[in-house]
UniProtKB/TrEMBL annotation:
Reaction catalysis annotation: Endonucleolytic cleavage of RNA, removing 5'-extranucleotides from tRNA precursor
Gene Ontology biological-process entries: tRNA 5'-leader removal
Lineage top rank: taxon: Bacteria
MF-aspect GO terms: 3'-tRNA processing endoribonuclease activity; ribonuclease P activity; tRNA binding
Enzymatic class: hydrolase
Keywords: Endonuclease, Hydrolase, Nuclease, RNA-binding, tRNA processing
Lineage, top ranks: Bacteria, Pseudomonadati, Bacteroidota, Sphingobacteriia, Sphingobacteriales
Protein function: RNaseP catalyzes the removal of the 5'-leader sequence from pre-tRNA to produce the mature 5'-terminus. It can also cleave other RNA substrates such as 4.5S RNA. The protein component plays an auxiliary but essential role in vivo by binding to the 5'-leader sequence and broadening the substrate specificity of the ribozyme.
Matching SUPFAM superfamilies: Ribosomal protein S5 domain 2-like
Name by which UniProt lists this protein: Ribonuclease P protein component
Cellular component aspect of the GO annotation: ribonuclease P complex
Assembly and oligomerization: Consists of a catalytic RNA component (M1 or rnpB) and a protein subunit.
Length: 127
């Protein structure tokens, strides 16, 4: 149930480009979320890409830590907060979650903000 498979990751360059050019976005500090409705039906309601600025975090270990914490919080809460709402409405989305914070916080903060972010996202998508 709490998995994060390859099919759930957004890797296609054309789709990522479409997401950043045509997508809607909102801020839920320390995350910036961009999303767009997917054209083709997918096996999962949402495909997601996580990114961290190289300008703010010079060392790769720091960027990887932030991405790891973000992915873990997403993985644990996506089903109840996002997937259930999207599946009932037959909606598929492409999603980008960018960390824009200035320093690395503890995991508890990541989890709290991710829950808030997913609630806000599902509300926006279902509008």
């Amino acid at each position: 149930m709490h998995t994060f498979k390859k099919e759930e990751r957004l890797c296609n360059k054309k789709l990522i480009e479409q997401l950043y050019h045509n997508g809607s976005s909102f801020l839920c500090y320390p995350f910036k979320v961009s999303w767009v409705l997917a054209d083709q039906p997918q096996s999962y309601p949402a495909q997601v890409v996580f990114s961290v600025s190289k300008k703010k975090f010079k060392r790769a270990v720091d960027r990887n830590l932030v991405k790891r914490r973000s992915r873990e919080a997403y993985r644990l809460h996506k089903q109840q907060l996002l997937y259930d709402a999207l599946s009932s409405s037959q909606i598929n989305i492409l999603l980008s979650i960018t960390y824009i914070g200035k320093e690395i916080e503890g995991y508890n903060m990541f989890e709290k903000r991710m829950i808030k972010l997913l609630n806000q996202l599902s509300a926006e998508v279902l509008k």
